[in-house]
Amino acid sequence: EGGKKKKKKKKTKEEGYSADVDAAHEHINVEQLSKKEELFQIRFIVHKARKLVGAIQVPLVRIHLDTKVLRTKPKKGKNPRWNETVTFSLTKSEVELITTPIEIKVIDSAKDTQYGLIGQYKCDLSIAWVGKGKNLFYKWFALINPDEPQDGVTGYVNISIQIIPPGEAAKDLPKMRDEEVDVSDNVFFPPGIELQPGTFIVRLLNGEDVPQMDSAMFEGFKKLVQTSEDPPAELVDPYCKIEFAGTQIESSVRYCTFDPIWNEQLMIPGEFPSMAEQIVVKLYDNDDYAIDDLIATKLIRLSDISYSASDAVLGFSPTFGPAYLPFYGSTREFNDVYDKFADLNYGVKEGIAYRGRVLLEINTKMETQLEAGENPISPIPEQETDVIMANLQRHKYHLFASFCQGNMICEKENQVEFEVSIGDYGNKFSPFASPAPSTTQPCNAVYDGNEYHFMPWGRTKPTVILHSQWEDVQYRVESLNTLIWMRDFMKMKMEQYEVLLRAFAHDYELEVKFENNLQELLSALTTLPLEPPDEDTCTDLDINLHKIRMFIINNLIDEVKAMLDGRLMYMARKEKEKRLDSVMEKMEDLCFEPQLGIPDVFIWMICGTKRVAYHRIPINEIMYSKSKFGRGKHCGSTGSFFLKMPQKDQIGAHLTLSLWFGKFEHVEQTFKPPRGSEVIVYAETYENQMCLVGGWTSKLLSRPVFSDSNGKYSLPLDCFVPPEGWQFKENWFISIDRSLTFDNEAGLKEFTEEVYEGQTRLPGSVWTGNFVTTWWSDNKGDKSPDKEEIECTEGWHWVADWEVDANRAVDPNGWEYALDTSIANYSPIERGYHLSRRRRWNRRRERISDINVLKKKHVDPEGWEYSKLFTTKFHPRERKFDMVRRRRYNRKLVSKVPMPVVFKITEEEATSNRPAKVFNMAPRIITEFEERQVHKYQLRAYLYQARGILGADPTGYSDPYARVIFGNRSATTHVIDESVSPVWDCTLVLDAVEICGYPDDIASNPPFIVIEIYDEDVMSHDQLGRVVCTPTVYNSGTYNPTKLKWFPIGGTRRSKGDLLAAFELFKMGTSGVELPHLPPFVDMRYLVPTVIRPKLQLTRVEVLTWGVRRMTDYKLIPIDAPHIDIEVGGQTLQIDKIESLKKHPNFASPHAYVDVHLPINEEYLPPINLRIMDNRAFGYTPLVAVATIKEYGKYRTEYAMLDGMGQSLQAEVAMDRALLTEVLADETDILEPELDLLGVIKEESESQLQAEAAQAASEKSASISKAGSEKSASISKAGSEKSASISKGESPEKMQDIEEELEQGTLVGVPEIKADSPPKGEVALDLGLEGSPVDEVVVEVESGASRSDSQASLISRTESKADIVIGNPLTGQADLSAVSYTNLGDASAENSIIDIMINIPQTAIDASQNGKIDASKSSQLSEKEIKTLEKNAKKEAKLKMKKLKKEKSTDCDSALIPLL
Question: What is the side-by-side order of every strand in the sheet holding 969-972?
C-alpha cells in the first residue's frame, strides 16, 4: 500500500499439525484399518470465509490434497461466500488415506502469486475420518501466513469434508443456523496460536414497545367477572439472551410489561481471536407451561463496533452505547393460532415490522476471566442509570408524509388505505398506541384501462402527520449521510466516465475526464464536513468511529493526490481506474452507523384488517439537517417507493411520496408544503344504514349509526369538540369518495356497452306466445332500460350498432337458458323445463373527451355508497342484493400555529353504574392543491430496444414485452418472440395525465415513470426486471428532441440487462407547448421518431467458428453433436452442427455471415448472443451453453465515404475489407484482405455507373464465397488431419502437443501474426476459464498480457466482476471489454470454450434513409458537375484501394469465448 516496499520479515514457519489432528489419530485404531488399495472420493464443500486480513479484493480457496490441487472460483470481499464443492479421487488404502496431507490456502487472485497468499491451514484426512460417518460438517479453519506467523490469525474459512468409500453415496449436508456453527468449539487452530481470554460486559438497562406475545383469553374472562376499571394487563413477560461464539447468558424476566426495566450487568466470557463475527441479542417472552417465544433478534457485527490495527491510537476493542437497539421481525399484531412470519424474528431476513427496542451498553476487557463462583449477573447502581438516562433526553419529532400518486395497486376487491408508522407511533392496530392521523381515507382502487389499478386522489392528496419523542441522534445521522453523499458523488463521477468508455471516446478525452474526476473528488474529500462528536453526550464508539473515518479519508486524499501529481502520476490509466475503484470500496465500507436508535419508518398498504404490502425507510434517509450533506436524500423531496408483499418477490403498490422528518423546533423554519397547496384538517364520521323489508333503516345495525370507517367507535356529529388552539371553519358536509366517480370505462379510450335481453314464460307455453315477459338487465342482474333507450355516455360516441354476442356458449340466436332468473346457471341447450332465457347485446363506443372526466351523475344524489356487507367493496348505485349503505361527513378545522390535533370523544352509552368512556380520535389530513394548479400532460415513451435481459424460457430466450406505468395510466408494447435483446421500436402515448403543482416545479422534480419488462408465457408472465426514471418536461417554448439513454434493469434478484429508451412529458392546453407530430403508425404501433431513433446502417457480421472445446456433460449425457446459434440485431445465424465432437471438434463450414441493420453510434449496438445447442435423439435439442459479447463496436471494419459530391449525388462508397484467408503450412505468409469498391452510387440518372457498381459487387461476392470455401476446406482438412493423428495413436508427447494446440485454438496451418499488429476488425482474444462454473460473470479483458501468463493461470488474476488478463495465442495480446456468460448446466461442471472469430465489414447504406436519396434537389447541379464529382470519387477510391493493398494486413485473429 502507498507504493512503499514492504520489508521482508524473518521466516519462522511452524512445523507439524495442530493438537486437533493428534487427537484424531489417537481415536483411530490403525490395526482395524484395511491395507487394500481402494478408490475413495474426497469432497470439500467450501462454504464461506470471514475476517480476512489485509487489502482483500477477490479471494479464492485452493485445496492441496496429496499431489492434487483444486480451487474454487473467486469471490469479492473480506467475508465471501462460495458454497462450492471440489472433489478429489484417491486410490489408497485406509491406512495411507488417514495420513494424506491436506493444505487449505486462501489466496487473493487479484495479486501476484508471491504476495497473494492470505493464509493457510495444514492437516490430514484423519480429522474427517473420525467424524460421524466419516464426515466433518461446517468446521472453521483458522488461517495463518507461514512466512509471517507472528501476525497471528489472518482469517477463517468454513469447510465441510466428506470421505466417500467405494460403493457408498454421499450424505446430504445438515441444515444448521449460523449461531449453531459459530461456536468456539467448532474451530481448528494451527499450532503456535495462543488464545487470549476476554470478557464482554453487557449493561442491559431497559426496553420499550415490546409487542403482545400471550393470549388475552383469560383477560376476557376477567372482564366478565370484575367490577373495577383496572387497566388491561400487558401480555408479555420479556427477558434478554446474549450469545457470542456458543456462549450465552440470560437476563432476569420482567413480568406483564411492554416496557421492561432490567438495570443488570451481564458478563460473557470468550477467547480471542475468535471466528465469531457478531454478538446476538435475542428478546424472548417467558412462558411457564410452554416453550419460550422468540420476540425478535438483533445481530451486532463486531467489525462495526471495533477496529483491529497495530496503532494503539486507532485500534479499539468492541464497544457499544449506551444506545437503543431497535428490533424488527414479524408484524406486531398477536395471533392466537399461528404467526406465518415468525421466521423473520430470527434476524436473518429483513423484518417487516418494528418489534421494540432495548437500551444497552457493551464494553470489552481483555485478559480477564470470571472468577470461580462469581455471579455473571449483577445489578447496576441507580446513580449510574440516572446519569445514562440524563444523556438520553427525549426530543419531539415531526414526521410529514404527503401521498402524491399511488398506482400498480394489486388489490381489486377491497378498499385500500395506507398507514405510516415510526416505532409504535401511527400503528392503527395497536391498542396502546396514541391516536394519530397515520392513515389515508379508505378508497377503492380504479382500473387504469390496461393492467393495473390506481388511487383516484386527484388534487386532494392524503397526508399523514405523526408527532413522536426520541433521543437526539442528530450527530450520527449527519455523519452517516455525509459519508453516503460522498460515496454517491464518487459513483456519479465514475458513471459519467464509464459513459465515455462505452462510447469508445478518444484516449485523450478519457484522460482529461479521468483527471477532472480526480480533481473534483479531491476537492470534495478535503472539504467534507465531518464534524467531531460532542464529548459530553457522545459514546466511546462515536469518538473511535470519528477517528477511524478521518484516518481513512486522509489516506484516500493522499492516494488521490498521488494519482494526480505524486508518485502514481505516471501510472497507466487503467491501473489508476483500479486504484479509484479501491478508493470507492473503502468509502463504501465507511457508510454504516450501528447506534441509530430511532426505528425505521414503515409504510403499509392495508385492506380492511389485513396488511398486504410494505416499504421500510431507514430514518437517516428522511431526517432533516441544516447541512445539505447531512440531510437525508428523501427529506423534503418526492421519492418513488415500491411496496412489496412480505416474503414474496411481488409488488403490491407503487407510491410517490413527499417525506420530511426532523425535530419539532425545525418545523416552522424549514418545513413547507408544496407550492400551490394547503394542508387541511378534517373531522370525519360515517353514517350507516342497513336494508330491512325493502327499506333503509338505522336500526338493528351491527355498528353505531355514526362511526369511524371500521365501525369500531361511535362518532355522532355533535360529539366532536375542537381541540385547544383549533376551531371549526365550516359546517358538516357530505364528502363523496372520489373512486365512486369513476365507472367501468375509466382509463379506456374504447368501451363495449353491454345489456341483457331476457324472457320469462309460464310452464307449457312457447317463447313467442302471449305468456312471455321480456325484461332487460345489466351483467349483475340489476334492472336496466331497453337497449334502444340506452344513451351514449357524455364524452363518448357510438361507433357500431347493437349486435347479439354469439361468441360464447349460446345457441345460434345468442340465447342461453335457465330454470329461473334467480338461478344463474344458464345453459346453451334448451330444455322443456326451462322457464327463463337471456342473450347479450353489445355496442362499441369511443371516447371523444378528457379521459379523466368525473361521472358525478352516476353517484347517488344523497351521497350514499352501497355494498352487500360493510367489509366488502362499496359502489355508487344501489343494486339488487345490497344490504348496507353509508355516507361520509367531513368538517374543516383551522389553527393559527401548527400543533397536534386529537379529538376527545365521549361515548353516549353511559349507565348509572358506569360513567361514559372517553377516548381520543385522530382527524383526517389532506394536502389540497388549487384548481388552477392541476395540469394535464401527455407522456411519450420511446422504447427502442433492450439488451442482455434474462432468458426465462428453456431455449435460453424470452418473449419480452414492456409495460409503462405513469400516474393513473399504463400502456404495453407488443411482444418480441425468442429474443434476449428485443427491438420494440415503439412509442407509447399516455394522454391527459393529471399532475398537480406549478409547471416549473414539475419540470425541476418530474414524476416518476415505471417500466416493467415481462416474459410472455402461455400460463404465466414472468417479470424480468424493472426501470424507474423521470421524463424530460416541456412546459413551453421550442421543442428540442431528447436522446435515447441506456437504463439498467433491476427490481428483482434475477434482473439483468439494459433498456434503451427516452421519455418526454408535454404540457397540454393553450398554455403548454405545441405537441410535435406523432411518428408513423406501422403494424398497430407508433414507431420511435426519426429525430430520436438511432441511425442504422446495413452491416454485415461475419463469423468464423472454428470449433468447441472442453464441453461438459449436460444432464449427465456427454455433448456429441453441438451447433451454434448467433443472434445479433434480432436476426439469428445458425452454424451447422458438428457430427461427432469426439472424432472432430471443429465445424465443417466455419464461415458464415448475416446482413443486419445496426446503429452507427456504437453506444447503441445490441449485443451478440451465442447459444450452443446439442442435437440428440428424437429431435431433442437442449440448450447447453450461452455467451454474450456486449461491446464489439471497436472491431468494426473501417469504411470510406466520399464526401463533397453535392446534394443530388450523395455517393456512399464502402471499403468492404472481406477476410480472404488461405490456411497455409508456411507460417511466414501474411494474410491480405482484398479491398474492392462496391460503388453503391445513388443517382437515378447514371445507369452506367449503377451497372458498374452491380458488376463490382457481383465479382466481390463471388471472390468472398470462393475464398470462404477454400478457407473452410483447408480448416476442415487441418482439423481432420489433427483428429486423424489423434485417432492413430500418437506418442504421449505428440498427443499432449496436439491436445494443447486444439485447446488453445492454434490450428495447424494458421499463420503467425506479429504482436505489433493491432486488430482492426475482428475479435482478437483467447478467453479460457478454469474451475467450476458460475451463475453469471462479466469478463473484462485487458491488453498487454503475455501468452505464457495466460496459459500458466488463466484465472489467477480474476475479480468477482471478473477482470481477466489473458493473452491472445496469435498476437500475444487481447482487448475485449466485456463478455458475459450464464450457467445452464450442473453446478459442478467445468467450463466450455468456443473458438470463434468475428469480422464486421460494413456497407455505408444508412437504413434511416432506406438507401434512397431525395431526388427533388438533383436539379441544383449541372450534368457536367455531376460527372466531375463522379470522376473524382472513382479516382479517390482507386487510390485508397491501391494504398491499402500494398499494406500487409493482419486482420485474422481467433477468439476463445467461455461458455457455461
Answer: 969-972, 960-966, 1009-1016, 1021-1029
Strand partners, 888: 686, 735
Distance between CA 440 and CA 461 in Å, rounded? 9
- Sign of dihedral through CA atoms 1375, 1380, 1383, 1388? positive
The Cα 302–Cα 245 span in angstroms is: 12
- Percent of the chain exceeding pLDDT 70 equals 77
Burial per residue of 128-155, b for 16 or more beta-carbon CB atoms within 10 angstroms, e otherwise: bbbbeebbbbbbbbbbbbbeebeebbbb
The residue whose grid cell reads 413522536 is 468
Residue by residue, DSSP assigns 301-352 as EHHHH-B--SSTTT-B---EEEEEEEEEES-SS--SS--TTGGGGGSSSPPS
C-alpha cell at 1122: 453441438
End-to-end CA distance of the chain: 36
- Burial class, 77, CB count within 10 angstroms (exposed 0-12 / middle 13-18 / buried 19+): middle
Task: Name the DSSP letter for residue 1236.
Answer: -
**Contact of 1370 with 1324, CB cutoff 8 Å:** yes
**Is the distance from CB of 949 to CB of 389 less than 8 angstroms?**
no
Residue 833 to residue 110: CA distance in whole angstroms: 85
Cell reading at 714: 361511535
As a three-state string, the secondary structure of 423-471 is CCECCCCCCCCCCCCCECCCECCEECCCCCEECCCCCEEEEEEEEEEEE
Alpha-carbon dihedral sign for residues 251, 255, 258, 263: negative
Average pLDDT, the chain: 78
Angle at 52 between CA 51 and CA 54, to 5 degrees: 125
Distance CA 974, CA 218 (A): 61
1420, three cell numbers: 441544383
How far apart CA 260 and CA 357 sit, in angstroms, is: 10
Q: Which residues of 752-774 are buried (b: 16+ CB within 10 A; e: fewer)?
A: ebbbbbbbbbeeeeeeeeeeeee
Q: Which of 1172, 1092, 1167 is nearest to 1135 (CA)?
A: 1172
As a whole number of angstroms, the distance between CA 193 and CA 1079 comes to 75
Tell me the per-residue pLDDT of 1219-1242, one tens digit each, with 9 for 90 and over.
322 222 222 232 222 222 222 222
- For 949-975, the pLDDT digits (tens) are 888 888 788 899 999 999 988 999 999
Q: Are 983 and 1130 in contact (CB under 8 A)?
A: yes
Residues 195-215 have a mean pLDDT of: 91
- Give the pLDDT of residue 435: 83
Is the separation of the CB atoms in 949 and 428 below 8 Å? no
pLDDT tens readout for residues 916-956: 667 788 889 999 998 888 999 999 999 999 988 888 888 78
Q: Where are the beta strands (DSSP E) in 693-806?
A: 695-697, 706-707, 726-728, 733-735, 750-761, 772-777, 796-798, 803-804
pTM for this predicted structure: 0.78
Strand 1455-1459 versus strand 1122-1128 pairing type = unpaired
Q: What is the pLDDT of residues 1312-1333, one digit of tens each?
A: 323 333 222 222 223 222 222 2
* All cell numbers assigned to 1327: 478467453
1244 pLDDT above the threshold of 90: no
CA distance 1219 to 1451: 7
CA distance 647 to 349: 9
Of 534-538, 779-783, 1397-1401, 1436-1440, where does mean pLDDT reach its minimum? 1397-1401
Residue 38: pLDDT band with limits 50, 70, 90: very high
Q: Are 386 and 576 in contact (CB under 8 A)?
A: no
DSSP 228-243: S-PPPP----EEEEEE
